[in-house]
Amino acid sequence: MSIIEVRGLRKFYGGRAVVDGVSFSVEKGEIFGILGPNGAGKTTTVECIGGLRSRDGGTITVAGFDPAGEDKALREELGIQLQESTLPEKQTVAEALQLYSSFYRDPRDWRELLDRLGLQTQANTYFGKLSGGQKQRLSVALALVGNPQVAILDELTTGLDPAARREVWGLLEDLKDTGVTLLLVSHFMEEAERLCDRVAVIDHGKVIALDTPEGLASGVRADQRMSFEPSGPIEPGVLEQLPDVHHVTTRDRRLIVTGTDNVASAVIIALHQRGVACQRLRVDQPSLDDAFVALTGNVDRELEPGAADALSR
Amino acid sequence: MSAAGAMIKSEARLLGRNPGVVAWAIVLPVAAAIVLAAIPGTRTPQDYFGGVSAFQAYQPILVLFVLAILAVQALPDVLTRYREMGVLKRLRTTPVSPGLLLFAQLALMVGVSLVCLVLIVVIPGIISGQWPKSPVAYLISYLLVAWAMLGLGMVISSLFRNAKVAAGFGTVLFFVLQFFAGLWVTRASMPEWMRWISNLTPSGAATQSLMDAASGQWPNLGYWAVLLAWGLGSSAVSIRLFRWE
Predict the structure, then answer these.
(1) Whole-angstrom Cα distance, residue B229 to residue A174?
(2) What ipTM is given for this predicted complex?
(3) Do B95 and A146 touch (CB under 8 A)?
(4) B87/A87 Cβ within 8 A
(5) B68 and B150 in contact (C-beta within 8 Å)?
(6) Topology of domain A224-285, CATH
(7) Hey, how many other C-beta atoms are within 10 angstroms of the C-beta on A221?
């Protein structure tokens, strides 16, 4: 029995289907990622699952409840971290956690949560004085303080600097062993690759792929790509003759070679025979990033008006 | 602690850290009432005030001043900011309703205004011996005024998404209300037509019914009806229009 079941979810805005027949299920204890470009319908999907938005079609169950029923009992089992939601400037971390824990029948010990999220030293700090990463950690804490079975985390690391982002990821990895099921909305491939057990890619309101991050990445037929600085002079034509090599380009002193899965060893052996070594070697696997671009097709859509925030990243 | 208790405590603490406009709502009218009561000259009836003393004329205006500042300025400011910040939406994700936050805010505003009422009535009463002669009528009038004012504050909180716009509108409304209450031109010296308009505003009806109750008469039921209509009307409008996000 899955803890989240979504079947044929539909949502229309002004006659346009923003979510158009989304189906997936999430198992207990899983970290499930929902990926997609801006405006793909990710947030609308999780807000329907969270019971914050009414749906126009399909069925949803979360921990045995239909979220459309506005059932208070569901709120005990489901914690939600919302995109861009803040707290009063002059509320301290401890006060916020204490207040929100008073809303639940069987809350977690908020002091324990404070330690777990590494916020002990900030307990008496005003929300307005926290760093971006600390605010997000508090936001996760508030989603978990009710001791829910399921937590929805929407764009948790958007707007954070890389260090703060890694800090939040580390925290979520630690949460894995508590058995909480996490539904993670993101448009960072690295985030999904690192954290998620399975990933659904949503585009134009539809699920276009659903697999493990590795499964998605390996499904893409992409060239292997290597780059290096040769220790001595070498003609690109020598490498182009190799059967495993498709393409060679030169950038400053660096050679960039693409080809089949065997391209790296073929090139290294060929150079070795000529007494040339590969320095500063780098080999790139097809990543979830490549899979994502291949699946959603166009990078252009990120440049549409209304997706301006994608440009700033 | 119950969720409601924890919420009121938390909101009270936040108000204490950000007293701003609420501090003025308390200090200014309370000080004015005490000064007025301390000057013997304010105790003699005058024609300009329609046959009552200056103290009798201004005390109800000061009582209204507190309620109006709290209801149409402080309350919409807090509520629209909470909506902008997503605090109300976050509460929707918990087992308690965001309505609990509204309740806590209303309870807090009523609490603060009651403390001010006591200060404005009791301290001058001790100084000058002038007490409301019909306390029951006074209290009924006060509760009706509070309802009408808080209702207006809720309408502002419902109509405006933007906290700054709501605050600006609240300020304008505050001065309009104070004008019809007779802060600048007393109701007694208003031209006939203007007094008629004043009678139909919640602040004009508020001043007159509080003044009548203070001088020992039961207020004309027409004033109570006006206040009741504003209370009911504003509540109905804000319940229909208020949005959590």
Answers:
(1) 58
(2) 0.85
(3) yes
(4) yes
(5) no
(6) Alpha-Beta Plaits (3.30.70)
(7) 8
| CA nearest neighbour of A204 among A297, A116, A81, A111 | A297
Which residue in B61, B64, B73 sits closest to B153, CA to CA?
B73
Here the tokens at position A54 are 């009414």
Where are the domains positioned within chain A? 4-218, 224-285
How many Å apart are CA A25 and CA A2, to the nearest integer?
6
- Partner residue opposite A100 with nearest CB, options B14, B92, B94: B94
The amino acid at B126: I
pLDDT digits (tens, 9 = 90+) for B145-154: 999 999 999 9
Contacts of A86 in chain B (CB under 8 A): 85-87
> What is the CATH topology of the domain spanning A4-218?
Rossmann fold (3.40.50)
pLDDT tens digits for range A60-104: 999 999 998 878 899 999 999 987 778 999 999 999 999 999 999
CB A24, CB A33: distance < 8 Å: no
Question: What mean pLDDT comes out for the span A206-234?
Answer: 84
Give the integer Cα–Cα distance in Å for B197 and B194. Answer: 5
Note whether A145 and A173 are within 8 A (CB): no
